[in-house]
Amino acid sequence: MIYLDNAATTLRKPPQVSAAVLEALRSCANPGRGGHAAAARAEETVYRTRKLASEFFGLEPEQICFTANATEGLNIALRTLVRPGDRVVLSGLEHNAVTRTLTGLGAKLVPVTAPIFDADRWAEAFAAALSAGASCCVCLHASNVFGALLPVDQIGALCAERRIPFVVDASQSAGLLPVTPERWQAAFTAMPGHKGLLGPQGTGILLCREQPLPLRFGGTGSLSMDQKMPRELPDCLEAGTLNVPGIAGLGAALGWLRLQNRAELLKREKKLLHAVLRLRALGAELWTGPDQIGVLSFRLPNRDPEETAARYARAGVALRAGLHCAPLAHRTGGTLPEGTVRLSLSVLTEPKEIERFLSVTKSLLK
């Protein structure tokens, strides 16, 4: 199978990841729940991953909180900052993990729109929307539909000037691009472990520069006599048994990424994306522009996106079609109601896979 659905989850991982998961399953018990060797090994495993992540993102280890996915992290961040009726400014490219959470909280959503690949226009649009005030601002770093990068540095600076808490969704950028919550002045930054970080599913990280409210309540292995949740990070967000095998695999993935030249990885992905753009010569409609990661939306002429993706699947190519859990982004991009076909690369995608994809495309168009 030619796997080009990495914006949903990376299927191919460094071999160290599965080895670390299996080792944790065999040797790790429950961290913080005993003084025996298996519990201590689990605690060491979790802390080692926390320390790696803190170095990766430029924060202290206690500011690294493990979640089940980016959605859980975004729920924690938004439930901490937003109350019913609050005005929340967000990009017109956000995922349902943001929009459904805000809707459930009873917030007043103020989506900002601009040409998808025009960073300057996005910054201007956010400045205009934030000038009216807001209780919170939410912005993704890179679009899961179009691969466009938004100017989070500038948006963070605008929020800081107005003392508006800023939340960043780094689901599509973490692992490939620098994620710098201190520079962005972001209160919270959420990401999954299973996409660009190349870790297992069921893992995620919330970077906390402000004090969060717990989403879950229960045992933490600390302050057990106190019936209130601990305020200290990371305990206040990590009630219950952690996914130690998943965290071990995430630690192995972070260790692998730390040894790579990330600028070269990005350069390699851009080269692969450039090869994919040969679709245009085959008659495909593309949504592309400058400052784009390896995520591309396209449509083949006179073909329904869902049927197109199904035909690719029968030919052994894994893509994703439809609305990609981001109807707001498709509204901004003018691609409702059918959506698009999405191709998404990873740092482990091979050039021969792109050539095979293009060959299949030619066959489908005959």
Structure description:
By secondary structure, the protein is of the alpha/beta class. It folds into two domains: 2-12 and 261-365, Aspartate Aminotransferase, domain 1; 15-258, Aspartate Aminotransferase, domain 2, CATH 3.40.640. 39% of the residues lie in helices and 14% in strands. The protein has twelve helices and 13 strands. The strands form three sheets. It has a seven-stranded mixed sheet, sandwiched between helices. Strand 9 (285-287) and strand 10 (295-299) form a beta hairpin. Helix 2 packs across helix 8. The longest helix is centred in the N-terminal third of the chain and has 21 residues, at 37-57. It is globular.
